[in-house]
Amino acid sequence: MSKIVPQKKIRILLGVCGGIAAYKSADLVRRLKERDFDVRVIMTESAAEFITPMTLQAVSGYSVHDALFDREAEAAMGHIELAKWADWILIAPATANTIAKLSVGICDDLLSTVVVASSAKCFIAPAMNQQMWASSVTQENISKLVSRDCHVLGPASGEQACGDVGFGRMLEPLEIAEQLVDYQQGQGSNSLPSNGLAGKRVLITAGPTVEAIDPVRFISNHSSGKMGYALAKAAQKQGAHVTLVSGPVNLTTPYAVDKVDVISAQDMLSAVKNRLVGCDIFIGCAAVADYTPVDVATQKIKKNDNDMQLTLKKNADIISWVAAQSKKPFVVGFAAESENLQQFAKSKLERKKLDMICANDISEPSLGFNSDNNRILILDKKGVQLQLPAASKEKIASDIIQQVSDRL
User: Which of 95, 255, 284, 306 is the S-S candidate for 17 at Cβ 3.0 to 4.6 Å?
Assistant: First the structure.
């Protein structure tokens, strides 16, 4: 009978920097320990202004390290021992200052010295003011760290301590812990993607639009929004700042995604126009109604025995408008076809001047609208074709986002 060897605990060295989000670090240690990670803590000098070493020592069960020149520890080369102890290094919150230091290899405190001296896998969870996160220098520093295989977790969007609203909030401790569990279980496969979209701004449309006829009747379609929401989640996991413009659906907004609710095609166009500046990638996944009534009755139209005539006008083509901009983002379209899939998808790609198109055959009842599964044919403007076999929409979305990342 073979002997069962217990799985080794992953040893995480948590680096806590000086930002208001440091108050979440105690909960983060608790969440990591709940998931059977072994956690030790390094604090920067400024982190101690927000949370005490005693608190983190109590929740971790280890003495907290906070000084590069600790005579007792350095007698045994303490920073090297810490660097060797860690399987993973997680910096949360990671301030703009620490990110900048790590990008150029400055080692002027214990945390930065340990990171540079260690071969451990590195994860950072940024936390800073939205303008600091959006600044070109911070994005350049993030890109440098990503190029060295450092995984970026977040940041999230929302109201900040200073009153600003935008991307820069540290992910919640539970979300960080869950992402690390995903990585542990995948051990570098697709559980934490390549961070190829870290710092990129992605705008996605999803779901149907609803075109009113009168106060109780409307024109719409069978789109569930599942594919668009899955794409938003996949892009966010690759480190992108994701805005999701969604028609009426019954779905939960993916974590750390900024959702904008709309009703009609005109609403969706206005939302896209207001958010396109600075966008790196646009994915038009929504099933936008091609036509809308010319006149919308203010009162319910009464039924009678005669035929009812409804005059329709064409809606604006949102994705064509985006692709026609002088400073357009990388534009990805979707084509839901019931016949001649490749032919119609290629025509749409060329006619609308898209960079990539994802086509699915809606004649198959088990795939496409309202289904949890899909099968996609990808075409791009360079003539590359790729068939993604039938799989869950979350898996398909992850593969599509990776294809977008590769092309960028």
Answer: 95
